[in-house]
Amino acid sequence: MPSFDIVSEVDNQEIDNALNQARKELATRFDLKDARTEIVHDSDKIILTADDANHLRGLREIVIGKLSKRGVDLRNVKQEEPAVSSVGHTRQELKIQQGLEGEKAKEIIHAIKSQSFKVQCQLQDQQIRVTGKKRDELQTVIQFVRGRDFGVATNFKNFRE
Known about the structure:
4 helices; four-stranded antiparallel beta sheet; single chain; alpha+beta
């Protein structure tokens, strides 16, 4: 039976490229030239640090703009509240969501089942496997999921016969 997977992934290489572009722009920006700013990329988060709140705001705008231009879906980037130290230094985390969380996956499955498509949906380790007898029905499900906004990026992969 034909099947495909619904996933929510962000390309880590594109994130690295966007952060490298942001670092290059930081070196040339006049308003951030003497400020001590830093961009650190861990596996699932980006940590921004700056001297004060205004520099952090400028840094965040640069990073978000570069991520957007590189095609990273910003629905998978969650911005935490900035933390301000007693000296005035600021720090903010941007969490990168990889995979479908439990509630979002259930919401997608429920939306597909409510449309009475002739397919079966299974949640398998942060991805949804959709199987059906006909390819046309699976393509209709893909169009339906693309047309709705679930608050996360939805990608489709592993289309099998």
